[in-house]
Amino acid sequence: RKKKAPIKWPLLGSLVEVLCNYHRYNDWLVPYLQKASTMRVDLPAGPTYTYTVDPSNVEHILKNNFANYPKGDAFKENMHIFLGDGIFNADGEEWRRQRKTASFEFSSKILRDFSTVVFKEYTLKLAVILNNAATAHQAVDMKDPKGVIADDLLPDGTKVKKGSLVVYVAYAMGRMTALWGADACDFKPERWLKDGVVQPESPFKFTAFQ
């Protein structure tokens, strides 16, 4: 209970603990990340996973060193049915090209009207997928991790290696007492209000609605 990271076995890495908790993976991560805001999980095959709930790390991954952390092939493959080849499922030069093209149209009525139709269409598709998964009691991971192109040092001092994967855990971030106080797990919308006025939080701290 006092461990700050999963037990790492010779050859097996943390596979034993991962498999034992696979059915409750996000909840399994929370107590570890309460103790250490960033941790590494080694597996016998495949890349190392670095999990973080540190807002400065999230900002580094999503903004300050964005080019080093592409979505990667796994994310694009899993989300293709929902996002297609659009900007939200693109990396690198393709992302930059689409972003530049879209920037000229963001304020146009044509784009707003078109987006309404597209969002409705894909929302219905997603609803069917999620309903089928819920009916079958299957989990759906829509959070796929970020790839690491080159060795890097996160703001909290964590080293990440080329070819590894980094995951900022939004589920756990919303439950961190270090970020929200002792009542972090309580449903308390008024925590963002002061004298009836909404007090915005950093999108890198409150990632669910960034």
Automatic annotation (TrEMBL):
Protein name (database record)? Cytochrome P450
Q: Does the keyword Oxidoreductase apply?
A: yes
What is the native source organism of this protein? Sphagnum jensenii
The record's Gene3D superfamilies line, in alphabetical order, gives: Cytochrome P450
Regions that span the bilayer: none
Keyword Lyase assigned to the entry: answer is: no
Which controlled-vocabulary keywords does the entry list? Iron, Metal-binding, Oxidoreductase
The highest taxon in the source lineage is Eukaryota
UniProt-listed Pfam families: p450 (PF00067)
Family statement drawn from the similarity comment of this UniProt entry: Belongs to the cytochrome P450 family.
